[in-house]
Amino acid sequence: MTSLSLLLWIALGIVLQVALWLGIGFWRHWMEYLALRRGVSTPEAAVPPAEPQSEPATVAAWFGFRSFRVERRVVEDAAQSICSFYLVPADGQALPTFLPGQFLTFRLDVPTAAGVREQIVRCYSLSDAPQPDHYRVSIKRVPAPAGSDLPPGRSSNHFHDHVAVGSNLQVRAPGGHFHIDRSNAPVVLIGGGIGITPMLSMLNWCLTEQPGREVWLFYGVRNSREPVMTAQLEALAAAHPSFHLHLCFSDPLPEDMAGRDFHHAGRVDVQLLRTQLPLKPYHFYICGPTPMMESLVTALEAWGVPDSHIHFEAFGPASLKRRPASAPVQTEATAGDITSDIVVTFAKSGKQLSWQPTSGSLLEFAEANGVSIDSGCRAGGCGTCQTTIRSGEVSYRNPPDFDPEPGSCLLCVCSPKTSVTLEA
Fold it and tell me: Does residue 49 lie within any of the structural domains?
């Protein structure tokens, strides 16, 4: 083949490609023309342009108390001492979300022995991940302590005995500073007894929103009559490889079998954590009775866990001391720092009293001296004992869960830093 023949073949190929392109273009335009003549738009024109999607509006938390109806009750344990209450807003309006680990505050009308009703305020942790149409709290009936004259828990027994499906409750919006973070850091959840409730909220949220996040749950109870939702927990552990469940019995029943009913005999302690956890920068979230908290928090600090990685909520957090941070924002003064010349003045009651380091919280000090103060949780959560400070300063051992208004304090978890005058 000569050079001239090769050149002609190349030119012919180019002409054929151009002709093919022109033919396809003509065919497309002809089809569109025919469609327009029939009054039918092309497939592309039939689909309206997509409107930009906006994020769902955030529902603002309400102020004060709001009426909720009990939609469902579920007994959660073999001993029938823990009951979950599913709450829906009576007004049918949307619910604000919450941070997993937070609590609800209830204002209850509780009958007294004298036949009258008394208002009390109590806080209970939310026990599920945020849901769009309801909240859930799981409440343990508190019996009278054995061998003492103390009465049984008023609010918990009121819930179990008098709050039925259809009952209306007055509820304050979710609150509290104890909640899980939204990072991808591996997390260890530790729940003792009914302290499992905020852990359930954190766990369910993690498995829904962050299914790949490494989560360990250590759940401590006495025996097989006490744990709640074990079937659900075991199902979640089977379905999520990143979730590791460890059930610990401190006092197993004779019929309780290791490997079937529980994983570890004994209490949840730092030795168990050290043998089970790989070396990683875990964040620890802990909730349980004060003795459990005191031993675990101190042991974790001694193990070398950074203070910023230890998060806890005790039953009565005001009684739980922890190692001072390197740069505390506000800490309670020690006995040596508080001098005997501090004077507490209760303005409305007309009392001026000398404060001593052994006087306890300002609420305890007021009650011991005949000053009546409304109170609820006595742990810095409900805000019932919020009192205006006319002059002076107070300090907190730990930041309270309820944020007091500027110029006021929560008497149940603070003590005077200087001489102080209170609106009480």
Answer: no
Task: Compute the distance between CA of residue 382 and CA of residue 411 in angstroms, rounded to an integer.
Answer: 12
d(CA 159, CA 152): 13
Return all residues near 174 (Cβ < 8 A) that are at least 6 apart.
61, 96, 98, 99, 102, 103, 104, 126, 135
What is the per-residue burial (b if ≥16 Cβ within 10 Å, else e) of 241-266?
eebbbbbbbbebeeebeeeebbbbee
Print the domain residue range for 111.
65-175
362: Cα within 13 Å, side-chain hemisphere: 35
Q: Which residues contact 125 (CB under 8 A, 6 or more apart)?
A: 101, 102, 103, 137, 138, 197, 198, 201, 287, 313
**Residue in the block written with tokens 């610990």:** 248
Which residue among 113, 148, 175 closes a domain? 175
Residue 360 sits in the same domain as residue 278:
no
Given a cut of 70, the residues of the chain with pLDDT beneath it are 1, 3-7, 9, 11, 13, 15-57, 314-340
Domain count for the chain:
3
Asked if 171 contacts 98 with a C-beta cutoff of 8 angstroms, the reply is no
One-letter amino acid of 370: G
Work out whether the CA dihedral 329, 330, 334, 337 comes out positive or negative: positive
Tell me if 421 sits within 8 A of 347, measured CB to CB. Answer: yes
Task: Enter the pTM of the model.
Answer: 0.76
Q: Which of 131, 264, 247 is nearest to 189 (CA)?
A: 247
Domain boundary among 315, 334, 357: 315
d(CA 89, CA 354): 47
Residue 19: per-residue pLDDT: 67
CA Rg value for the chain: 32
171 domain-assigned: yes
The reply to whether 405 falls in a domain is yes
CATH number reported for the structural domain that contains residue 226 in this entry: 3.40.50.80
Q: Are residues 306 and 411 in the same domain?
A: no
Matching residue, tokens 């989560």: 215
Tokens of 73: 């009750």
Q: What are phi and psi of 284, to 5 degrees?
A: -105, 125
86 residue type, one letter: Y
d(C-alpha 84, C-alpha 232), whole Å: 14
pLDDT of 152: 86
